Amino acid sequence: MSEELQTASRIRAHLDEVAHLRTQIREPGLIAATAAVKQLQSLRFRATYADFLRSQTHEAATRFFLEELYGKTDFTERDTQFGRIAGAIERLFPAAVGHLAVDLAEIHALSERLDHEMAEHWMSFGRAGSETSAAKRYIQCWRATSQREHRDRQLAVVLHMGRELQRLTRIRSVHLALKMMRQPAHLAGLSSLQQLLERGFAAFAAMGDAETFLTAIENRESAWTANMFNMDLATCAQQLALDLSKAQNDQ
């Protein structure tokens, strides 16, 4: 199988999983639970990277990750565009962009899978009649979902995508090719994908050397995951509740 066909196949496989998960989220309770999980995760990310959100150098890249990878946005339109042109991505865009698209699709599928399982547990803990705080309830859902290997894979793909963006922003020909794609992408109905790529490139280009940013993500997310699995529940819930409160106050 050619590299182009492998790229298309991998993108479609990830997006098919996301589409399948969406068909299962029809019950109002599960829709609300999924929204609650995503909202809490968005606040946690804001708290963990509050320093970068205040940094002129790192703000754009932090918001790119927050809104495009960890956000609560409905990505249905973008997914539809990805799926429709998966086989043509490497013909329409520079070859390296195809690899970024695979990373993005995999991160998306992993996140949706984990969020779906978390939401199912969220409803279960809620139906138990407990007055547990949102932070404690979230940690209980995390531990009930488990999936340590998927959590680790999610972080690994995020870091790979970040390092590829850093590498590609230094290649002038890729920048020029991306700009030249604006009109063809618009005519082909690929505006969402084009805008996503341009946002990512602009954010990483603004940072210059992204290693400080990516190392911080690796260290902080690894520590976060370890605490979520291993820390005493009451202590972990107290810390998470404090982070959520800070993020809400900063909004």
- Biggest sheet, open or closed, and with what strands and sense? none
Instruction: Count all strands and give the number.
Output: 0
Rg over CA atoms, rounded to whole Å, is 19 Å
Helix and strand run: HHHHHHHHHHHHHH
Mean pLDDT: 81
As for the number of domains, it is 1
Total number of helices:
14
Helix percent band = over 70%
User: What separation lies between the terminal Cα atoms?
Assistant: 48 Å
Strand content: under 5%
Which blocks of ≥5 consecutive residues have pLDDT under 50? none
Structural class: mainly alpha
| Envelope shape | globular
Any chance you could write out the topology, listing elements then pairs?
Blueprint (H helix, E strand, L loop, with lengths): L2 H22 L3 H21 L1 H4 L5 H10 L7 H10 L3 H4 L2 H33 L6 H12 L2 H21 L3 H9 L1 H6 L3 H17 L3 H20 L2 H18 L1
Helix pairs in contact: 1-5, 1-7, 2-7, 2-14, 4-12, 7-8, 7-9, 8-14, 9-12, 9-13
Structural description of this entry:
It contains 14 helices and no strands. The protein is mainly α and 251 residues long. It has one domain (3-250). Helix 7 runs antiparallel to helix 9 (148-168). It is globular and about 55 Å long. The chain starts with a helix and ends with a helix.
